[in-house]
Design a protein that fits this description.
By secondary structure, the chain is α/β, with parallel strands linked by helices. The protein is built from 9 helices and 13 strands. Strands 1, 2, 3, 4, 5, 6, 7, 8, 9, 10 and 11 form an 11-stranded mixed beta sheet that branches. Strands 12-13 form a two-stranded parallel sheet. Strand 5, helix 5 and strand 6 form a beta-alpha-beta unit. Helix 4 crosses helix 5 and helix 7 packs across helix 8.
Length: 350
């Protein structure tokens, strides 16, 4: 009997210890789960929180051949009833959201001062887990479908808000740069200017299999004008392509810096522009950059800015943010300076 009571007592002690362990584990799991849930909730709330600065941060949803895409529109304050403002479309890179891109580039602060709308479409993570725009898969038609969906977002914004449709520009970083180039070549008459930051040369990839090699600079698009149009998918009259600003860091380890010159050469060939003399520009202690302008008839159709020491990041972006380098020249100011000049040149052209 003593041995049985001893066995029963040991079993009871084991059971109590097991229950205590399970209770502690349950409490720890609940605490961790609550902490993780709070972190997710804070992150979600942060994405809907407007970036700093005056003006409005307006959500929207557009439907197109590539499905549905969310977007946010920055609207500067105090728009007059009869006022129509330019629109700059900003396409984020992989691993970013539209709000991340707005925070990094601080384009809204420039838009508030210079008075223009800024559209931030956002890639659906169900379509691409890393949030990359599909600039490359043209062979299957997926890239063109996504570009058409983004055009639907632009059209929707143009209907809902006082956008001047004669002053629209498209800008992108990395995968967003590739998509910006695709949109500018597919719909050249819709844009008066385009800008590619750290992107792959247009026409360098047509499928997922060739995209990685293109990022590494292995696939150089063809140079003859007739082949350029075919590779880029441009309209029959290549000179309808909008002027292009190319920004790229020479220390980029994600997208080879050789893509910058390839992009400029392709675009210049397609628009009949000739290169000028390269010059070096540096503002204070910021990274210096080599600037080459490609002109036709006295007008700049391509501006190439190769930035020394810049990696795969938005040049001059907000500090301490991913894909943002505060030490570089201010790319947002460079973009707006280029875009606004093209708006004026297009308005003055016969």
């Amino acid at each position: 009997m003593a041995r049985r009571r001893s066995s029963t007592s040991a079993a009871s002690a084991f059971t109590r210890a097991y229950q205590r362990g399970m209770n502690a584990l349950t409490k720890a799991t609940l605490r961790n789960g609550k902490r993780i849930a709070n972190q997710v909730q804070r992150a979600a709330a942060e994405q809907f929180k407007p970036p700093r600065g005056p003006g409005d941060w307006l959500p929207g949803l557009a439907l197109g051949p590539g499905g549905a895409r969310r977007y946010h529109l920055y609207r500067p304050p105090d728009i007059a009833r009869d006022e129509r403002l330019p629109l700059v479309v900003m396409l984020h890179g992989c691993g970013q959201t539209g709000r991340d891109f707005a925070a990094s580039t601080r384009m809204n602060l420039i838009a508030a001062r210079e008075r223009f709308f800024v559209l931030y479409p956002e890639q659906d993570r169900l379509v691409h887990p890393q949030g990359c725009w599909n600039w490359y898969d043209r062979r299957s038609g997926k890239a063109d479908a996504e570009a058409a969906t983004l055009m639907a977002a632009i059209d929707q914004v143009g209907v809902l808000y006082p956008v001047d449709r004669e002053r629209v520009a498209v800008v992108g970083l990395s995968a967003g740069a590739g998509m910006a180039a695709l949109m500018a070549t597919r719909y050249p008459v819709r844009f008066k200017a385009a800008a590619m930051h750290s992107g792959v040369a247009p026409g360098a990839a047509r499928s997922p299999a060739t995209a990685l090699g293109a990022m590494r600079g292995r696939h150089v698009p063809p140079m003859p004008a007739t082949a350029v149009g075919k590779a880029m998918g441009a309209a029959a009259v290549f000179t309808t392509l909008p002027p292009l600003l190319v920004l790229h860091g020479d220390a980029d380890l994600v997208v080879s810096a050789s893509n910058a010159m390839s992009t400029a050469s392709v675009w210049a060939t397609a628009t009949g522009a000739k290169p000028g003399i390269e010059r070096t520009v540096q503002r204070g202690k910021r990274h210096p950059m080599r600037v080459t302008e490609f002109k036709r008839g006295g007008r700049t159709f391509v501006m190439l800015c190769e930035i020394a020491g810049l990696g795969h990041a938005w040049s001059g972006g907000a500090p301490r943010l991913p894909f943002s380098d505060a030490a570089g020249p201010n790319a947002s100011r460079l973009v707006w300076a280029f875009v606004s000049r093209q708006f004026k040149a297009a308005a003055a052209a016969p």
